[in-house]
Predict the structure.
Amino acid sequence: MAFVMTAYNITIQQGFTADIIKMTWLSFPLTFVVAFTLEYFIVAKYGMKLVFKLHKNHHTSFQKRSLTALVFVGSMATLMSLFFSILAVGFSKNLPLTWIYNLAISAIFAYPLVVFVAAPLVGFVFRTIFPEGSIVDIAK
């Protein structure tokens, strides 16, 4: 997600060129470190608490996945849009408007990407590696 969203934000800011992959690849290490740190220490910690409060027993797996994506994408899009805005304009008077713009265009792209592409793909890979019933709870 971090790589795709980095490419998307660079494309939005600078237009579609042949150098998008190169620019994305060169800026990816810093973006990955920032995204991983924010997700691991902030979003996952507080986001999962919110997700568990919002999940209901009658929700389907798609509804649960969509709700989880909404919480995580909302949080990560907000924080990463701020990061990309600071990279683009620095701490200038244009920062708030750039942040709002980046947040709007990022969230519109990120939410469907997570719900319809990333989550099903990760679920498929996870279930291929660990078929249902193959993970044993050692606490029992």
User: Anything to note?
Assistant: Residues 2-129 form one domain. The helical segments are 2-14, 20-54, 61-89, 95-129.
